[in-house]
Amino acid sequence: MKKIIYISYSFEKGGAAKAANNIYDCLKKKTIIKKYSYKNIINENFFSFIKILLFNIFFKTILRSKNKFSFNLFNINNLNQICKKYEIVHLNWIGNEFLSIKEIIKINKKIIWTVHDDWLKNVITHVGKEDNSSYFPISYFKNQIKNFKKKLFKKKITFIAPSNYILKNLKKKTKNKIYLIRHPINENIFKYKKKKESEIITFNVGGSNVFYDQNKGFEYLDEILNLSKKYINTNYKFVFFGSKTYDDKFKTDKKIYLENYLESKKIAQIFSNSSYTFVLSKVESFSLITAESLMCGCPVVCFDDNAASELIIHKKNGFLLKRNDKNSIENFLLWAKKNKNFFNRKDISIKANLNFSYKSISKKYETIYEKL
Is 345 exposed, middle or buried (0-12, 13-18, 19+ CB in 10 A)? Predict the structure, then answer.
């Protein structure tokens, strides 16, 4: 059995960290695999961690971008030394100056890289299109990164894309092998439970930074709430979850039930009790929330132009909104009011299990590990 070092900036905070942890979780019983994150740097080399912190502060100060970005230019660790005992290096999200591109190029082991966002496609930006800042010293650093990424894509690396969106973007950059493997969801937590039939339509909205991150589509919430009040009248409610704090207008709305950060079991319970899950993002590289909801049999409502929509078959396991149709949300709410209990929730869960369960996804990763 091959020994693997499994590297990610974090395994706790944010969607990419949760996805990386899920992959580790589904593999740990079947492979010899060791986690490595920024916490290891704190314990093993505190000076390196301080350097990471200072670089982050410096770049955020000079760039002042609302988007998430990473330069990953400066050597923080002796990566080859860290990976010495292992046959395979499995990379995940490495932003926040966690690892330098130069270090990765120098790795003399077999590499798998599960890609979680747009950073490899872009220069420094993690989500969506590249930040267009071009003033000095940003322009200088960007040119350096472009040159290093050209070398990186020529290095033999096996890439894993969780969506066709990521897959297509990677194909434009490299001739290396790229496999499409969806992110795994724990089937022992996110599983089908029969929902009680009700005249009340329950919508849920939640996840990391959903209520503050522009990419997560929070600007649609007011429209959805106002249209629900207009067209569904009294027979609806919303469950918001995943945020530390909420705007006062949500706190005073009696149709909204607010939950803060929740453990996975509580989130699964919300999905099982909800009629629909709203996923309103502009850009998604996969959408864990969508997959988790489907595993519980809860249909998902999302826009038709991002990776979340790859998981949805219109009116089979969810409802696809047309981004450019200003009446799209209104049309959905009118349809939902007329078509209560429309979906076969058990069937949704069974099919999602085949696509996202730990059991299903672990086999795909094991096959790739054996090929290396």
Answer: buried
Half-sphere exposure of residue 215: CA atoms within 13 angstroms, side-chain side: 17
CA separation for the pair 241, 260 (Å, rounded): 5
Residue 196 has which token pair? 């009680």
Residue 221's identity, in one-letter code, is L
CB contact at 8 A, 20 and 37: no
Q: Is residue 192 part of a domain?
A: no
CB atoms under 10 Å from CB of 363, counted, come to 11
Q: pTM surpassing 0.85?
A: yes
CATH number at residue 221: 3.40.50.2000
The token duo for 293 is 């909801």
Q: Are strands 300-303 and 276-279 parallel, antiparallel or unpaired?
A: parallel
Do the beta carbons of residue 126 and residue 118 sit within 8 Å? Answer: yes
Cβ pair 91, 120 in contact under 8 A: no
Full residue range of the structural domain in which residue 275 is found: 201-355
Give 241-274 pLDDT, tens digit per residue.
998 889 899 999 999 999 988 899 999 999 999 9
Reduced to 3 DSSP states, what percent helix, strand and coil does the chain have, rounded to the nearest 5?
40, 15, 45
With contact defined as beta carbons under 8 Å apart, do 118 and 128 qualify? yes
Clarify whether residues 361 and 314 are in a common domain.
Answer: no
As for how many domains the chain has, the answer is: 2
